[in-house]
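Structure in, sequence out. Go:
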């Protein structure tokens, strides 16, 4: 699959998506502090150490949260402790960005202890994926963009020099990529513009109807989806939950990422893409399959949640472009 990364600097901090206004945090400068926190499961100590080393090599100063390496029933501390670390990182004006050490489970517990508007008071980049999808959802609702991207393990696995990590580094500096993805047999051609939201389906679906649900915002949406370890029947229910909530009219395009570690075939479908195509083909919207996002550290390119994007799906492949 051929992917070209074409940098383009965004110059304006405010972007309006339909009725929902989004703020883009300041891009980073050398010497900026990045908080390293664990809102979910407990990370490996070496992973955090190596992740911090990569951030230093990128020119930043990592500051590890007090409870980032704590242990409590598999979580990185109690829900109150993890919430305290997140609030510290959000409120400390010397911190310019926040990166999660890992995913796992527990971010929703943290959200219960944080007011919905906290993410928007001091706009700063929150970086992570998987369980961190919950934080991205809350940030979008609060009107702040965030980055669905690699965490400590991934950025340190090849010393931060792999293509995915380099793309994340450039994104933090203000160089936004244009992604080109090879054609997939299930692609649905078309063009659409909207606010990019998405991530781990099982996580953002669990926020349905809450004050932290990014699918509830008043905006045209480009939705990207991925998951790990969830069966086809589960993903079937999660997709139809979006339908039964009446949200599909605001979804102007869909980006289907990587679904990994699941049993197939199931229910007569050969794989997850085959099943999703059966449902999405009834909508006259562009759908890109095989986008490099999901639980694969060298195939999980960063995406800006809450940013306006243009999705184009054609006979030769798909293009995703971040726009002002």
């Amino acid at each position: 699959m051929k992917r070209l990364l074409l940098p383009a600097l965004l110059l304006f901090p405010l972007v309006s998506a339909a009725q929902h206004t989004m703020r883009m945090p300041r891009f980073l400068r050398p010497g900026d502090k990045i908080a390293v926190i664990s809102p979910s499961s407990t990370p490996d100590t070496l992973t955090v150490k190596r992740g911090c080393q990569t951030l230093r090599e990128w020119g930043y100063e990592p500051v590890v949260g007090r409870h980032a390496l704590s242990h409590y029933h598999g979580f990185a501390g109690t829900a109150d402790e993890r919430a305290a670390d997140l609030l510290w990182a959000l409120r400390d004006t010397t911190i310019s960005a926040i990166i999660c050490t890992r995913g796992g489970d527990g971010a929703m517990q943290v959200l219960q202890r944080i007011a919905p508007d906290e993410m928007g008071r001091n706009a700063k980049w929150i970086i992570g994926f998987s369980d961190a999808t919950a934080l991205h959802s809350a940030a979008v609702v609060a009107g702040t963009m965030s980055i669905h991207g690699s965490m400590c393990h991934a950025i340190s696995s090849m010393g931060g020099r792999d293509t995915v990590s380099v793309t994340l580094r450039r994104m933090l500096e203000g160089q936004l990529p244009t992604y080109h993805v090879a054609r997939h047999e299930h692609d649905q051609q078309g063009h659409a513009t909207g606010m990019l939201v998405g991530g781990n389906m099982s996580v953002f679906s669990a926020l349905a109807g809450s004050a932290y649900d990014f699918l509830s915002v008043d905006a045209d949406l480009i939705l990207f989806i991925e998951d790990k370890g969830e069966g086809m029947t589960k993903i079937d229910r999660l997709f139809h939950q979006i339908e039964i909530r009446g949200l599909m009219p605001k979804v102007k395009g869909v980006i289907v990422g990587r679904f990994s570690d699941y049993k197939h075939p199931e229910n007569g479908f050969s794989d997850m893409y085959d099943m999703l195509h059966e449902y999405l083909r009834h909508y006259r919207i562009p759908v890109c399959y095989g986008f490099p996002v999901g639980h694969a550290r060298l195939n999980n390119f960063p995406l800006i949640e809450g940013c306006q994007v243009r999705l184009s799906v054609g006979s030769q492949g798909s293009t995703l472009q971040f726009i002002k």
